[in-house]
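Hi R.,

As promised on Friday, here is the backbone we talked about, encoded as C-alpha cells. Could you run it through your design pipeline when you get a chance and send me back a sequence?
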C-alpha cells in the first residue's frame, strides 16, 4: 500500500488552520499578504485571440497574424497587469520554431499519416502561422515588454485536449508522441467509460470527458518529452518567466502505482532542471489546484519547493480550471499558512453548475462585476492572497460581450473590493467546503432539514450593507415548481420571507440565466455574521422529495456604492 497523499504534518496543520478560521479572522496567520502590493497575473490562452471576435480580430475565420497577438497583449495595458502569461497551445505540439520537435517534421508526419489536413479551425490556423515561420513566443515577449508587463510562458503539462482515444486527426493539436503512445498502458490512463461524475478535477484522478486519456509522468518517455519541450523554451527565450500549469490537467500520475515520495521526487527534480536552465531574475511559478489532497496526487509539496535552494519557486497560482468559485470553498487558507512566497487566487469568466443526474457541467453563468469583486474580497480575507490571476477571462466575447476590464483593473485594489456590493455564490460544481455544515447539492425530502454553512466577509471600514439583500436557491435544471409556502428557509436561525422577484439585485449586461429555476427570499442584512453563516432549508411537502438545490447565492448591496457598473 502506498503512502497517503497528505502527510500527518499536513493534516495537523489543516486542523489548526480550520480551528483558527472558526474562532477569528484568518488574517492573523499571515499579515504579510494584507500589506504587500497586490499582483495581477493575466493568462492569455492564445487560442482566444483567433477564435473570438475582438477589436483586433474582426472575423473569427481570418488567418492568424502577429498583429492579433500584439493586440491581445496591448489591450491589457493600463490594467495593472504585473505578469502576462501565454499558453502556447496544448503544449503537445510545438507552437514555436522548435528544434526538438520541428513544425516542418510534424507537418510531414501528419500528411503521411492522415493526408492533407482538412481542419480550418483555430488550432490549425495558428499552427499554419508557426509553420510559415511565425515566432509566437518571441513576438509575445516583445509585445509584453512594450506595455511594461513581465512575460511568462504557462506550459500545460497534461492538457488532454487532442488526446482522444482513439486519436483524432486534429492538425496542430494531435501530437505524434501521443499518437505513438495512445495504446501504451504504462504511459497513459484511459478514462474511457468515465464521465464527469468523477471529475471535480481537484478531487479525482480521471479526465473530465469520456474517451480521453492522460499522460503519466512516472513513465520515463513521457517525462522526457515534457522536459525536453520546456527546457527548449527556456534556452531559446532567455529571460522569459516560466510556469508549469498542472491545472490542465492534474491527472499526471497513477497514484495506485506510485508513492507520494516518488511523485514528489520526480516533480522536484523537474523543477530543479528548469530553474538551472533559467536566466537570472526570471521567475518560476506553478498553477495548481487549491486542494491539499490533489497536491499529493500530483507530487507538489509547495512548502518544500518554495524553500528548496535548487528550485526557488517564486509564486503559486491556485487555479480554478474553467469555473470560478470562492477561496473559502478551497484549502486556500491552509496553503497560505504553509508557504511564504506570493500566492495568487484565480478567477475566470464564469461559474458552471454540475448536473446532479448526468454528472456533467451544463449551465454557464458569466460573472458579474459584483461576483468578480466578491471573489477578490474572499481571496484577500480568507487566505491573505498576494494577488489575483485570470484564466480565460477574454471569453466573455464568446457571447458577444467585451471582458469587464474596467472591473479587472480594480480587483487588486483591496480598498475598492472592500467597498463594493457583494455577490456570494456556492455551487454544486465544486461544493461549498464548510466547517460542519452540509455540502451542495442539498437533496430535499419532506420535513427533513438540510443545512449549508458558508463564509461571508463584511465590507470594509466605513461601509455598511443596505437594509435588505436577497438569497436565491437554484434547483436542478428545471423550474422551481414547489409552492414557496411549503419551503422554510432560515439564515442563522431566522426564517426568511419569500419574494416573487427571483432576479438579481444588481443591473448587468450579463444574462441572468434560467431565472425560473430559482426560489428567492428577502435577506435582512442584519442577519449576516462575519465569518460562518448557516443556511437551513426545510420543505413541508412531498412535492420537494428529490429536489436538488444546486446553487445558493447571497446578494448584499452596500450603502453609497457607485461601483455597480453594468456589464
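Update: got your reply. Pasting your designed sequence below so it's all in one thread:
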Amino acid at each position: 500500500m502506498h503512502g497517503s497523499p497528505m502527510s500527518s504534518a499536513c493534516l495537523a496543520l489543516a486542523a489548526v488552520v480550520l480551528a483558527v478560521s472558526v474562532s477569528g479572522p484568518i488574517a492573523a496567520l499571515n499579515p504579510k499578504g494584507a500589506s504587500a502590493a497586490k499582483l495581477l497575473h493575466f493568462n492569455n490562452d492564445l487560442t482566444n485571440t483567433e477564435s473570438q471576435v475582438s477589436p483586433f480580430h474582426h472575423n473569427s475565420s481570418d488567418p492568424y497574424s502577429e498583429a492579433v497577438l500584439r493586440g491581445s497583449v496591448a489591450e491589457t495595458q493600463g490594467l495593472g497587469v504585473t505578469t502576462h502569461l501565454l499558453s502556447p497551445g496544448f503544449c503537445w505540439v510545438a507552437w514555436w520554431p522548435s528544434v526538438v520537435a520541428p513544425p516542418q517534421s510534424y507537418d510531414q508526419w501528419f500528411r503521411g499519416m492522415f493526408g492533407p489536413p482538412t481542419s480550418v479551425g483555430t488550432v490549425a490556423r495558428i499552427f499554419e502561422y508557426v509553420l510559415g515561420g511565425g515566432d509566437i513566443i518571441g513576438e509575445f515577449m516583445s509585445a509584453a515588454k512594450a506595455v511594461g508587463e513581465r512575460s511568462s510562458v504557462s506550459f500545460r503539462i497534461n492538457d488532454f485536449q487532442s488526446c482522444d482515444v482513439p486519436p483524432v486527426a486534429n492538425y496542430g493539436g494531435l501530437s505524434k508522441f501521443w499518437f505513438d503512445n495512445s495504446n501504451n498502458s504504462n504511459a497513459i490512463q484511459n478514462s474511457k467509460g468515465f464521465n464527469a461524475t468523477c471529475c471535480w478535477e481537484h478531487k479525482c484522478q480521471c479526465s473530465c470527458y469520456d474517451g480521453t486519456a492522460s499522460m503519466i509522468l512516472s513513465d520515463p518517455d513521457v517525462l522526457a518529452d515534457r522536459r525536453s519541450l520546456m527546457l527548449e523554451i527556456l534556452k531559446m527565450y532567455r529571460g522569459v518567466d516560466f510556469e508549469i500549469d498542472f491545472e490542465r490537467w492534474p491527472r499526471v500520475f497513477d497514484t495506485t502505482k506510485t508513492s507520494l515520495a516518488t511523485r514528489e521526487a520526480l516533480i522536484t527534480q523537474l523543477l530543479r532542471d528548469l530553474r538551472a536552465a533559467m536566466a537570472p531574475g526570471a521567475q518560476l511559478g506553478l498553477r495548481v489546484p487549491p486542494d491539499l489532497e490533489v497536491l499529493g496526487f500530483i507530487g507538489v509539496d509547495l512548502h518544500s519547493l518554495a524553500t528548496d535552494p535548487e528550485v526557488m519557486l517564486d509564486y503559486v497560482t491556485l487555479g480554478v480550471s474553467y469555473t470560478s468559485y470562492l477561496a473559502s470553498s478551497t484549502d486556500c487558507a491552509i496553503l497560505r499558512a504553509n508557504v511564504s512566497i506570493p500566492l495568487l487566487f484565480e478567477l475566470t469568466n464564469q461559474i458552471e453548475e454540475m448536473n446532479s443526474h448526468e454528472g456533467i457541467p451544463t449551465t454557464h453563468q458569466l460573472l458579474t462585476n459584483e461576483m468578480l469583486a466578491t471573489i477578490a474580497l474572499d481571496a484577500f480575507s480568507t487566505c491573505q492572497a498576494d494577488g489575483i490571476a485570470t484564466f480565460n477571462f477574454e471569453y466573455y466575447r464568446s457571447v458577444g460581450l467585451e471582458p469587464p476590464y474596467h472591473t479587472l483593473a480594480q480587483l487588486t485594489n483591496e480598498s475598492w473590493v472592500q467597498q463594493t456590493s457583494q455577490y456570494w455564490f456556492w455551487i454544486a460544481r465544486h461544493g461549498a467546503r464548510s466547517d460542519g455544515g452540509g455540502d451542495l447539492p442539498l437533496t430535499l425530502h419532506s420535513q427533513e432539514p438540510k443545512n449549508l454553512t458558508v463564509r461571508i466577509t463584511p465590507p470594509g471600514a466605513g461601509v455598511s450593507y443596505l437594509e435588505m439583500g436577497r438569497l436565491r436557491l437554484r434547483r436542478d435544471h428545471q423550474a422551481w415548481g414547489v409552492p414557496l409556502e411549503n419551503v422554510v428557509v432560515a439564515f442563522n436561525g431566522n426564517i426568511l420571507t419569500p419574494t416573487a422577484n427571483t432576479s438579481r439585485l444588481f443591473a448587468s449586461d450579463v444574462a441572468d440565466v434560467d431565472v425560473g429555476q430559482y426560489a428567492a427570499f428577502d435577506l435582512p442584512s442584519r442577519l449576516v455574521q462575519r465569518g460562518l453563516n448557516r443556511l437551513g432549508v426545510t420543505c413541508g411537502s412531498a412535492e420537494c422529495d428529490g429536489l436538488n438545490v444546486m446553487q445558493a447565492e447571497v446578494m448584499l448591496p452596500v450603502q453609497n456604492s457607485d461601483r455597480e457598473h453594468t456589464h
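One thing I noticed while checking it: The longest strand covers residues 531-539.

Thanks again,
M.
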